[in-house]
Amino acid sequence: MGLWLFGHWHHAAKHGLWRSSFGLKVFSLPVLHRLAPIATNHKPRRAGRGASGWVYDAPPAA
Question: According to the UniProt record, where is the region Disordered (predicted)?
Fold first, then answer.
């Protein structure tokens, strides 16, 4: 697995593009996007939103 990741990382660094769409998706994951040598599809979470991106509803009135 590490060799596969390194191969995709090296190709991206050398050619400025991803070897496969799957490699792009893997390097777009929350931790691995920091290791990517070129831009990925990673979108940081916005404050007040959950992992799904939905805004939390206000608690019911008492």
Answer: 43-62
In a domain, 29, yes or no: yes
11: in domain: yes
Domains: count for the chain: 1
37-46 LR contacts (CB < 8 Å, sep 24+): 37/9, 37/12, 37/13, 38/12, 38/13
Residue 17's domain spans which residues? 2-34
CA distances (Å), origin 53, targets 26, 58, 59 = 20, 15, 18
- Using a cut of 0.70, tell me whether the model's pTM lies above it: no
